[in-house]
Amino acid sequence: MISFGPVPSRRLGESLGINNIPSRKVCSYACIYCQVGRTYKHSINREPFYSPEVLLSEVKKHLSALKEEDRPDYLTLVSNGEPTLDINLGDSILKLKELGIPIAVITNASLLTDPQVRDELCLANWVSVKVDAGSETVWKAINRPCVGLHFNDHIEGILKFASQFKGTLATETMLVSGVNDSPEMVQQAASIVEKINPDVAYISIPTRPPTVQSVHAPSELTVSEAFHIYKDRGLNVELLLGFEGTNFGNTGNIIEDIVNISTVHPIREDAMLELLKKNGADTAILNELLQIKYIKKVQYKSDTYYIRYFHL
């Protein structure tokens, strides 16, 4: 369960996801909107997961199983938790670069206080850092950081990284209704993003099943106001609001594809049916995976999603 997809990405085109944290979710945050589900291990301590050699071997194998039209635009480290908790991250990025495909990392930026983490992330071609809040109170409410993390240090770490990173830097702000979407809160976050000065500042809303059921997307008017707050600060801002599409890549092993993708990326029902069709499979396989509790169904708004089932 190391790589999955490629999956359609609103930021990166066709993205081959790499889950460098194989166990249940290990993260320094427990964000209320997280699509991966609850944090089983709340940690800020880096540790080894897969060796860089194993990671490279598995991704090579995955790429060889793809059709040419499914060749990804990026190899994206986006894990079942926070990818920078992997102590082998830097070596893994160097190994993956041998494949000649740009490397992206999507991080919550909580460990950027560590110079070693900053140096390792500088090896990537594209990095997204999370900036959901402009104050400690809101940060704790929406991201629920691990004990030992401090807001001011966290922001200082991002600013230090931004000053040394030579690749494409993005920030992402997830807006949640009633939590961080007031004009004052958005202004606070925007002021930090302005200091970071990313190549692109994304504003997103929850579009997949969140960890906390009371999480809802803000109104269109609220999102529009946030967009203009960011724009007025001279930021290159883009909205991430819609569904990415149903065009998932496949390796020919439908069971592995479903399990690997759903571990990190909830699969909407129409995308699931398209994935089955691509593999010449029918819903009997889906029903079997549900019955043996490899995956489970979750309803969010008017849509049905399939996500990885982790046994307690």
From TrEMBL:
It comes from the Bacteria. Keywords: 4Fe-4S, Iron, Iron-sulfur, Metal-binding, S-adenosyl-L-methionine. This is Wyosine [tRNA(Phe)-imidazoG37] synthetase (Radical SAM superfamily). Gene3D superfamilies: Aldolase class I. The keyword Endoplasmic reticulum does not apply. The keyword Ion transport does not apply. Residues 13-244 form the Radical SAM core domain. Its cofactor is [4Fe-4S] cluster. It comes from Acetobacteroides hydrogenigenes. SUPFAM superfamilies: Radical SAM enzymes. InterPro entries: Aldolase_TIM, GTPase_Obg, rSAM, rSAM_sf.
